[in-house]
Design brief:
Blueprint lengths: L3 H12 L1 H38 L5 E5 L4 H8 L4 E17 L2 E10 L11 E3 L21 E5 L18 E6 L2 E12 L6 H4 L1 E7 H8 L6 E6 L6 H16 L5 E4 L9 H36 L1 H9 L4 H42 L10 H27 L3 H5 L4 H6 L3 H7 L6 H10 L3 H38 L4 E10 H9 L4 E10 L2 E3 L10 E5 L10 E4 L9 E5 H6 L8 E6 L2 E11 L10 E5 H8 L4 E9 L4 H17 L9 E2 H44 L1 H9 L4 H43 L9 H27 L3 H6 L2
Parallel strand pairs: 3-8, 5-7, 14-19, 16-18
Antiparallel strand pairs: 1-9, 1-10, 2-3, 2-6, 2-9, 4-7, 5-8, 6-7, 11-20, 11-21, 12-14, 12-20, 13-17, 15-18, 16-19, 17-18
Helix pairs in contact: 1-9, 2-7, 2-9, 2-10, 2-20, 7-10, 7-15, 7-20, 7-22, 9-10, 14-22, 15-20, 15-22, 15-23, 20-22, 20-23, 22-23
Length: 813
């Protein structure tokens, strides 16, 4: 037989359906947020950790000047080298529409059936692009055919193009247009996913590569080591041995040694998981506040019932167990809603994210350990939140319970808020009633306000993070006054390339820059990763840097060097004023670090640094020869920049100047960077919206409880002639006032939190501080949202209040 107290618990849940629904939904949203985020990132992260090592990634990649398989065979025989493999790489564009191009990189392999390092495998049906019928393709590609890397199909702008196996694509390399036939898809799990770079990739044979470029030599040497494959220092030592051997033959060699066993996106992925989980647990915290509010209201409403139960023999421990049982049922009902919903959303998010970061589509079932976590959270959180209110509320004595008269006593008290409201003039009486009601239950108001304030603070902070990202881009783009960047495959005479550029209509200024990919020779003799070195003419107008420390280059500087924060991430010991040794084209020279600058964007290697061209040209033997030209144009629209770039490319082609595929317009470069920022902001905004929903549910719960407690007061107002609209107006005004008050407080508190969150995002995702910008637009947007949210959350309680009749009020207990 069911004990009477448990029958009472069930009746309380059933007769107060709205209250039960609000608590269940609030807990469910918190559990859903944590469950969906954790499940998505756990599954995709596990697949990332599995697929990357399975592909046998290169321990190091070296870039010697053109070589063939004889050199590969020689490296394979070196002690300590497990294997070596050569490839060729060239960058260009793929035309996806008459006036729309994307970056396109082609890898050339000698033997598609014997890929040993950074393995590439044929791909049949691809879940992320089901309309592409890859199963019709074949492997390996034939002459003048290309295998597309599967993530290329997710590059914005490429998917709408009706691309299928057997179709021809137009690619541009070395000022030449070529038609390649799509032979199928391949999966390359160790390379940076195409959507993140906003560039497509493909694979061809060396014969096809020769037809495209006029050369069949390779320029990428991938190696693996025989021992200590997870020791980065050992790998660097082995790469240096290979590099030294190749350089002894007169080659110029650059090397890259990534962190062993870590996918290129691993740090970004880990940072996003941390941020989203923090926001997910934040929504759980808000759910806990709502539980506290509801339980406090239930206990306040049932004071006399508690007294009667104690009078007939109920013990305090039984009372505590009864109300904790109610909370336990709230949690169980919330889990019934949250777990399937989190699993369904996580499945869709996992499939999207798996395609986007280019891992195999995993089994998306809920892992047992995550299911256990969701159950623990859904049960433990509401119980812990309700424990202290329940203990405090059930310890009331029989005398105190029977002598309690409910709201009358609370209403009789006057505090500073009541005295302040009494002094307000020129406001209607219903509005004054709404203001008094707002501050009647100050503890409940505080929890409700805290819920909405946290939700608003997070919402405004996420918008501020987005504004900070855009400001960071703006700061970087202020440094670059060029509209078109044209890079050459080799150094050309300045007196050849500059006059040709000035012939193009719309060009207002031209600067020729030199460049190299040097390495720092550390004090212990080891070498850093390669970074990009730009050699600028004195008083350059194309570069107006954002200095972080020190100064910019002066016209008479010789061995002065300005480094970016990107370089400092890898070489943390460098300080302004230091003398460092650089190896440029095999020659060592000393440089004086005079400043640090911030940059945003991909420059290859570990980041950019800047020197004066005259001194650079002398020590490298490139006087009068440059590797790129920077162009300023009359108009700065993307269309005009692209038009000038195309005309320049044609003019250089006719003059026999070979333009490399790494030539961009300023607008295109910025769009590439903005894409990644937008993705991050979208993920953060989803969590902010979930928190806003919890805040809205909390306000609805508070207003419903307030209406219930004021049933008799509403009846009295109805008895003396208050209309339905007046009753509704009082409740709606109270709800909107609470919402707007919380919005103003959120706006004040969000400023320091926005600074902290922007710094956290910068360090976790980019390992760089963001330029902070507080989002005024986000603040205004939240005030509008919270006003509408408050009105919606108050509508049902207001409607219910207006329907109460005098008879119902007299019958209410």
């Amino acid at each position: 037989m069911i004990a009477p107290r448990w029958i009472k618990v069930w009746r309380d849940l059933w007769t107060n359906k709205l209250r039960t629904l609000l608590v269940v939904l609030s807990i469910a949203v918190g559990v859903f947020a944590v469950g969906a985020v954790t499940q998505t990132f756990t599954i995709v992260g596990n697949e990332l950790a599995i697929s990357y090592p399975k592909a046998n990634p290169a321990a190091a990649t070296l870039y010697p000047s053109g070589f063939d398989n004889d050199l590969v065979a020689m490296v394979r025989r070196m002690p300590g080298i497990a294997d070596a493999e050569g490839r060729a790489l060239i960058g260009g564009q793929i035309q996806i529409a008459p006036d729309n191009e994307r970056l396109f990189y082609i890898f050339a392999l000698d033997n598609f059936n014997d890929i040993r390092i950074s393995k590439i495998r044929p791909q049949g049906a691809y879940a992320a692009a089901p309309d592409f019928h890859a199963e019709r393709g074949h492997w390996p590609p034939a002459d003048r055919e290309i295998i597309l890397e599967r993530s290329s199909l997710l590059v914005p702008g490429l998917v709408p193009h009706p691309l299928q196996v057997g179709d021809s694509i137009t690619v541009k390399f070395n000022n030449r247009e070529r038609q390649l036939t799509v032979a199928g898809l391949a999966y390359h799990p160790t390379f940076f996913p195409a959507p993140f770079a906003n560039a497509a990739y493909g694979f061809v044979t060396l014969d096809t590569f020769e037809w495209l470029t006029g050369s069949r030599t390779m320029d990428m040497l991938l190696i693996t080591v025989a021992d200590k494959s997870h020791d980065q220092e050992h790998i660097k030592a082995m790469a240096d041995q290979v590099k030294s051997k190749l350089e002894s033959g007169g080659r110029t060699v650059y090397a890259e040694v990534p962190q062993p066993g870590r996918h290129p996106l691993q740090d970004i992925f880990t940072g996003m998981l941390l941020l989203l989980n923090l926001l997910g647990f934040g929504s759980l915290l808000l759910s806990g506040f709502l539980v506290v509010n509801i339980i406090n209201a239930v206990l306040a409403q049932q004071v006399r019932q508690i007294g009667i139960m104690k009078a007939i023999g109920a013990r305090t421990s039984q009372m505590i167990g009864m109300y904790l049982g109610m909370v336990l049922l709230f949690g169980v009902l919330a889990l019934i809603v949250a777990i399937p919903l989190a699993s369904a959303v996580a499945t869709e998010a996992t499939n999207y994210l798996a395609g986007f970061i280019n891992v195999d589509f995993p089994n998306t079932g809920t892992p047992p350990e995550l299911l256990a976590l969701e159950i623990i959270i859904g049960i433990a959180l509401p119980i812990l939140a309700a424990l202290f209110p329940i203990i405090g509320g059930t310890r009331i004595t029989v005398r105190e319970a029977i002598s309690d008269y409910g709201l009358g006593q609370v209403a009789a008290r006057t505090g500073w808020t009541d005295r302040l409201i009494d002094k307000i003039r020129g406001v209607s009486r219903p509005t004054l009633i709404s203001l008094r009601n707002t501050f009647r239950r100050k503890g409940r108001l505080a929890l409700t306000m805290l819920t909405l304030i946290l939700a608003g603070t997070i919402f405004i902070s996420v918008n501020s993070v987005h504004s900070s990202m855009l400001l960071t881009l703006d700061d970087a783009w202020k440094s670059w006054n060029w509209d078109v960047l044209i890079t050459f495959e080799r150094a050309y005479r300045t007196d050849l390339v500059e006059p040709l550029a000035k012939e193009v209509p719309g060009v207002t200024a031209v600067e020729s820059w030199g460049g190299a990919s040097p390495r720092r020779v550390r004090p212990d003799g080891s070498e850093s990763e390669a970074f990009t070195l730009f050699a600028l003419p004195p008083n350059s107008q194309m570069m107006v840097p954002t200095m972080v420390e020190g100064r910019w280059l002066l016209p008479d500087d010789e061995n002065a060097l300005v480094i970016s924060l990107d370089v400092l991430k890898a070489e943390k010991d460098i300080q302004v004023g230091d003398e460092i040794k650089l190896k440029i084209a095999g020659r060592e020279s000393m440089w004086h670090v005079v400043g640090k600058v911030r940059t945003v964007g991909s420059f290859g290697g570990t980041g950019p640094a800047y020197v004066n061209y005259p001194y650079f040209a002398r020590i490298t033997g490139q006087v009068g020869r440059v590797g790129s030209v920077q162009i300023a144009t009359q108009e700065h629209t993307g269309e005009f920049q692209q038009k000038v770039k195309d005309e320049l490319t044609t003019i250089y082609k006719d003059a026999g100047v070979r333009v490399s595929g790494n030539s961009f317009t300023n607008r295109f470069f910025r769009q590439n960077s903005e894409l990644f920022f937008t993705i991050i902001t979208a993920l953060l905004m989803v969590m902010a919206i979930l928190m806003a929903i919890v805040g809205g549910l909390g306000l609805m719960g508070t207003m419903s409880i307030n209406v219930l407690e004021r049933t008799r007061e509403i009846g009295v107002m109805r008895a003396i002639g208050a209309s339905n609209s007046a009753i509704r107006g009082i409740v709606l005004t109270e709800g909107v006032f609470i919402g707007l008050l919380s919005g103003l407080m959120a706006a004040l508190l969000s400023y320091p939190l926005s600074q902290g969150l922007s710094a956290l995002v910068g360090e976790a995702i980019f390992q760089l501080p963001l330029s902070f910008s507080f989002s005024i637009g986000g603040t205004i947007m939240w005030l509008i949202i919270v006003a509408l949210l408050s009105a919606l959350a108050s509508f049902v309680p207001a409607f219910n209040a207006s329907r109460l009749t005098v008879r119902q009020v007299l019958a209410y207990e």
